[in-house]
Task: structure prediction
Amino acid sequence: MFHGDDGPSHNKVSSVLLSWYASNKRVLPWRDPQGLPTDPYRVWISEIMLQQTTVPTVRGYFERFISRWPSVQDLAKASLDDVLHEWQGLGYYSRAKNLHKCAVMIVEAFDGTFQTAEKDFLSLPGVGPYTAAAIQSIAFNSPSTVVDGNVERVIARLFSLKTPLPQAKAEIHKLAGHIRSEEEPSNYAQALMDLGSSVCTPKAPKCVICPLEKFCSAKKHNPESFPIRQKKKEKPTRRGIFYFIQDDKGRVLLEKRPLSGGLFSGLMALPSEGWDTTDDDPVTRLKIKNIKPLPEKVRHVFTHFSLIAEVRYAESTIAEGVWVFPEALSNYALPTLMKKIFKLTLPETVE
Ligand code: SF4
Result:
C-alpha cells in the first residue's frame, strides 16, 4: 500500500509518528501541559471553535471562554446572549447556539458527563462525526479515527491520492484508520494533526525534516498538488443596504435578528434590506428619514456568497428597537460585518 523505500508495516508508520510527536507536540491551551488526557469539555469547546477558524484566532477565545465557563455545568447555566457575546468575531454563530444547547442537553440527558458512546454524542445538535470522534479519541483514548483538514492533507500526500476532495473523504478516513495506533489512538490523532500543521503544511511542506518522509508517496512528485480538490464554484455577490440610524441623543438603533434561523440569528444588527431572505422594508417599518448614503461600501464574505454592503445614515425618532450609545456597543453580541460598518461610521468608539 505504501510507496516508500522500505515497505513499512502500518505499525511502523504510527510508531515513527508517535516518537516524533513525543518531542514535537504543539503547546495548545486546550491540551494538558503535562501531556495527561485532555478534559473532554476542553476538547469539545476547542474542536467546535476550530471549525472554520485557525488555531491562532481560537487561542484567545478559548482561554476567555474556559475561564468564564470552566465546566459544562457552568456553560449550561449561562444565558445564550452571554455566550453569543463571548463568541462575537468568531463567526458562524450557529456553532455558539448549538454549543449552548448541547451543554444543557449534556447536563440534563447525560448527567453532565462526556463519557458516552460516540453514537449518542452524534445525536446532539452541531456535533458531527468529526467532533464526536475527536472527543472519543483525544479525551478517552478510544479507537476512533479523527480526520481534520491537516490529517486529510497528510494522508492524501502519503498515498498520493488521485481522487479529489470532497469525494476522497471516505477513502482518507479509511486510510487514516488503517495506520492508526491501536495502543495510543489519542496521541496518534493529535500527532497527525500536528504534523499537518507544522511540517506537512499546505505550501512548502518540510519533507526533509518529516518523520514520515520515507513512507511518503508524494514527496518526490509535487506534494503541494495534494490533496487534489475539485474546482470551487465562484461565490455569487449580493448587495444590501444597512441603515445607520441615530436619534437626537446620538444613540444607534440595533435590532435583534430572529432566533428562528437565518444569518446572524440571535445577534444584534443594524436594520437592513435586500441581501438576506427576508423581505423587510425598514424605511417604511421604522419611518426612517433624512437618508444619506455613505460613499464607502463594506465588503464581507459569507460561506455561500460575498456581500457588498451599502451604508446609509438616517434618522428616526419613533423607531422601536434597542437604542445604544456608541460607547456601549461592545456590550452587545455583534457580527463582524456590523463591526466593519461601525469602523466607518464610528471610528473613534469601535476598535
Ligand atoms: S514527506 Fe513531505 S509531503 Fe510527505 S508527509 Fe512528510 S511533509 Fe508531507
Summary: The pocket of iron/sulfur cluster is lined by residues 154, 157-158, 199-200, 205-207, 210, 212-213, 216, 218-219, 223 (CB under 6 Å). The longest strand covers residues 289-301.
